Amino acid sequence: MLLAHKERGALRLARPLGGLLAAAVREARVHVRRTAGKGEGEEQNGPLTLVPVPSARLAVAGRGHDPVRRVALAAARELRREGLPTRVLAVLRQRRTVADQAGLTARQRAVNVSGALELVPRSGKLLARGESLLVDDVMTTGASLAEAARALAEGPWKVNAAAVVAFRPKT
């Protein structure tokens, strides 16, 4: 499903994939609250913010859409229907070009994306309140998510957790 949505333009799959991402977001929030000692019913201070890991500009142009952002928007719609104020903010961008990650080892992936992301200028105020979760479509080694968390840490906030649609461990 992910490949059909991402590479073959099956845009109608954004909604079911968004449902899967929304489920992962719910679980991530439960884990964050449990480890922070917060109760299930405690209100957050501000909306839940989903921060998509950005795709390369050339990949977005070639596909004609940004699949991670599209799925994040679908997840946010579902979460809002459930009464959870949720927004999607694209506050990260690529600072430099990276190689295609396919076929790279975990170490090579980490080196490939190291320092590749940065905050969009003047985006700090957007994430000042509430919970922030990184979201991506697939996690293989975690290198892209780690780089996104590093870039977000350049601002005045922290990432509370990450959620993905699928986990495909690198063998």
Question: What would your notes on this structure say?
Answer:
The structure is a single chain. By secondary structure, the protein is of the alpha/beta class. It is 40% helix and 17% strand. It is built from 6 helices and 6 strands, in the order ααβααββαββαβ. A 4-stranded parallel β-sheet has the order 2-1-5-6, with helices on both faces. Helix 2 packs across helix 4 and helix 5 packs parallel to helix 6. 35% of the residues are buried.
Average of pLDDT: 85
Reported for the largest beta sheet, the result is: 4 strands, parallel
Shape: globular
C-alpha Rg, in Å? Answer: 16 Å
Report the portion of residues in β strands: 15-25%
Residue ranges: pLDDT <50 for 5 or more in a row? none
Q: Name the strands of the widest sheet in spatial order.
A: 2-1-5-6
Helix content range = 40-55%
Q: Structural class, please?
A: alpha/beta
Distance between the termini: 21 Å
Q: How would you summarize what this structure contains?
A:
The chain is of the alpha/beta class and 171 residues long. The protein has helices at residues 2-7, 14-36, 57-63, 67-81, 106-113, 143-152, and strands spanning 48-52, 86-88, 92-94, 117-119, 132-139, 161-167.
